[in-house]
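Q: I have 126 residues here and want to know how they pack in 3D. Can you give me a structure?
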Amino acid sequence: MKKIISTSNAPAPIGPYNQAIFAGDTLYISGQIPLDPKSGELVSGDIAEETKMVMKNLEAILTEAGLTFEHVVKSSIFLSDMGSFSAVNEVYGSYFNEDTAPARETVEVANLPKYVNVEISMIAMK
């Protein structure tokens, strides 16, 4: 059985999907982009600021589900330019304890929704 997780503290979906779904004890969080949920505007220009907005959106969804970043077991990071890896990794890493950080992949893609520079999805467990 699945349970839909939704919060106004993260951007509303821009297509036929939900912010997150609990399937049993596993939470699947849809990819988040640097969209400010309050203003509806994209945060752009500085990849570190964009990544912070993405992580805040992910945190809002985790919080709504009653979880934290410590519950995350897998992350997927999509970048429009692998040259941004270091800056994104620095921000991303500040949200995790290195000893218990989740599994992860980071890939460069040709394009992302709304032509953003970074998108991150996560899987977490209760």
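Q: Anything worth noting?
A: The chain has two helices and six strands. The first helix runs from residue 47 to 64.
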